């Protein structure tokens, strides 16, 4: 009995040491990958990296990590024509992450995730300068907000024959993703004080698009929908590079 007791104690101690070593190793790996990703993407803040699965050390021996979660805020993506757009709360789940021994390179077989773009950020791409849409009529987009039921409410300010309308004209718009571009299109056209305006001229104000390119690791825009504080996007990709 004494020998069995000693054996069990040894097993428990060794098991505890293994768990401790495993957690220390995973913590080191998470810090290394986070640092490499911060450098690669030129991030102001260190991203959150969480390596899932236990034990970690057996995954290391296999040369690939089953599941890695990455989170970052305030990522600045390319928006075309030398412009940029801020992406908030980007969270990505990476599967099948192969890495080098010093974590200088790490590539995920697949990745899916979510992020958001505020209405204030999206508004930057709309026609915010007064533009003539008909003789004596100018208009511009002055606000975006949640229109409910997956729609964006677009506020359009108009001036008719030198008189600014007392209230903005509101239209509900649909938002879709096509390739790397978010598109906002009015479901119905605005009525600017009863003025006759060609559809193409009205849509030149109400409809706009925003390119979102250069997301981390090469992930791509997948879908988009309107939400309370902005548009929520989903992303996906394959052979996504976390480092290297």
UniProtKB/TrEMBL annotation:
Among Pfam families, the record links this protein to: LmeA (PF11209)
Query: Which InterPro entries does the record match to this protein?
Result: DUF2993
Q: Report the domain of life of the source organism.
A: Bacteria
Q: What is this protein called?
A: DUF2993 domain-containing protein
Task: Specify the species.
Answer: Streptomyces coerulescens
């Amino acid at each position: 009995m004494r020998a069995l007791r000693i054996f069990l104690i040894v097993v428990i101690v060794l098991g505890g040491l293994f768990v401790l070593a495993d957690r220390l190793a995973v913590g080191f790996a998470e810090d290394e990958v986070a640092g490499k990703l911060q450098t690669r993407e030129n991030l102001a803040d260190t991203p959150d990296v969480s390596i899932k699965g236990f034990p970690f050390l057996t995954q290391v021996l296999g040369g690939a990590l089953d599941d890695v979660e990455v989170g970052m805020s305030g990522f600045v993506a390319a928006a075309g024509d030398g412009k940029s757009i801020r992406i908030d709360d980007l969270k990505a789940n990476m599967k099948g992450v192969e890495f080098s021994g010093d974590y200088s390179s790490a590539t995920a077989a697949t990745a899916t995730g979510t992020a958001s773009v505020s209405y204030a950020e999206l508004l930057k791409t709309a026609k915010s300068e007064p533009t003539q849409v008909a003789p004596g009529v100018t208009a511009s987009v002055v606000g975006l907000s949640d229109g409910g039921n997956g729609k964006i409410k677009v506020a359009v300010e108009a001036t008719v024959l030198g008189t600014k309308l007392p209230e903005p004209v509101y239209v509900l718009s649909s938002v879709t993703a096509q390739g790397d571009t978010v598109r906002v299109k009015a479901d119905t056209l605005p009525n600017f004080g009863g003025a006759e305006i060609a559809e193409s001229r009205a849509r030149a104000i109400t409809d706009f698009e925003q390119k979102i390119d250069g997301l981390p690791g090469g992930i791509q825009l997948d879908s988009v929908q309107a939400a309370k504080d902005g548009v929520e996007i989903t992303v996906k990709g394959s052979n996504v590079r976390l480092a290297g």
